[in-house]
Design brief:
Layout: H1 9-26, E1 43-45, H2 56-72, E2 78-80
Parallel strand pairs: 1-2
Length: about 80
Amino acid sequence: MVVLPNTNREGAIIVAQQIQHTIRNLSLLHQKSEVSNIVTLSMGISSMIPNSLNFPSTLVALADKALYTAKQEGRNQYFVS
């Protein structure tokens, strides 16, 4: 999990792209994978403006749901909820 305070959705997407780029460039072998021979990264992105009605657990649940959507859509990508 990466928490980016004071970062909007667009900023989170930029950070996600940078993380993916860095992981891809490491070219870490993933010999047991049926998906790719190198380590790849799927991410779920969620964003909210904190207030008394929002709970951190809601943000985590939304990001988790987005992560599984990214995996279902082909992996090695991010999905924004």
